[in-house]
Amino acid sequence: MQYITAAVLAAFVGYVGAWYFGALEGNFALLLFLATVVTGAYWLAERFIFLPRRRQAAQALEAAAAQRRAELDRMGIQKVDQDDLQEAKGRILMQPWWLDWTAGLFPVIAIVFLLRSFLFEPFKIPSGSMIPTLLVGDLILVNKFTYGLRLPVVNTKITEGNPLQRGDVVVFRYPPQPNMDYIKRVVGIPGDEVAYLNKRLTVNGTPVPTTALPDFFDPDAMRYFKQFEEQLGAHPHRLLNNPEVPAFVQGASNYQFRDQCRYSVEGVTCKVPEGHYFMMGDNRDNSLDSRYWGFVPDGNIVGKAFFVWMNFGNLKRIGPFN
């Protein structure tokens, strides 16, 4: 059994290594699911097969030792060393290494799997598309149950939950490459007509209210950007615009339901299909979002981002956000 376990562990290590070095596209949800299943199988085998066998062997050793003591008593020998017996029992009952690395890890892996799949999942912000709301390096938590619980790996919804609202910051599977996670703000829900023309957002014919704020200094770019407060949904949020970038959308792909969008030199206007959402980044001129690759299906939704739990370069970032 130890050789089979060594092969299984080597397969896991090989998969992670190939993923790390870019030899294949990894799927952490699938990896965690498989780890839970495999370690769970070992945990059950340990509890109902291997541990009872070791206990039986220890009991047999005790019985043999008792019989030997009885024979020595008949021979008039009273002094018997018990330390060797206890040491031998300890060796018999000890978990072998291949169970330590499987059954022993199951409770921890199972807890992580359940928390990540159904409650909260951590993410790291890799790019500046959500500046100034989220900065590069922010470590955030995503609520996995607000929009309804989903089965891990297949992402099938099993409870309804609350509907997505305009203004929510959402993590989702990137439609052109579903193994990647993106984070953007919901600006259009099913049935909405969303227009982003001359860098002004309009939803269903009504311009979204914006208020000018002092310019935002981006320390990574070492420059200032025009900053506004936008009232989209229940909570206001900040956004950036770069007047040097033209309004028209350059390089939009041929995505599904593109016929629901009209592009012009002023920008883009889209009718959001049923079961889909229109997403945009808060850093409007530095965000690869629905303007370029289309709508996000409901089945791609991962959860609602709501809290920065750490930024090692700026501890003041810790806290909730809109």
UniProtKB/TrEMBL annotation:
Matching entries from SUPFAM superfamilies are given as: LexA/Signal peptidase
Q: Where in the cell is it found?
A: Membrane
Write out the GO MF terms.
serine-type endopeptidase activity; signal peptidase activity
Protein name in UniProt? Signal peptidase I
Similarity comment text for this entry: Belongs to the peptidase S26 family.
Keywords on record: Hydrolase, Membrane, Protease, Transmembrane, Transmembrane helix
Q: Which reaction does it catalyse?
A: Cleavage of hydrophobic, N-terminal signal or leader sequences from secreted and periplasmic proteins
- How does the protein associate with the membrane? Single-pass type II membrane protein
What GO CC terms are in its UniProt record? membrane
Catalytic residues at S129, K184
Q: Which GO terms describe its biological process?
A: signal peptide processing
Report the InterPro entries cross-referenced here: LexA/Signal_pep-like_sf, Pept_S26A_signal_pept_1, Pept_S26A_signal_pept_1_CS, Pept_S26A_signal_pept_1_Lys-AS, Pept_S26A_signal_pept_1_Ser-AS, Peptidase_S26
Stated EC number for the protein is 3.4.21.89
Q: Where are the transmembrane segments?
A: 28-45, 98-119
Q: Name one Pfam family in it.
A: Peptidase_S26
**What residues does the Peptidase S26 domain cover?**
99-310
This protein's record includes keyword Hydrolase: yes
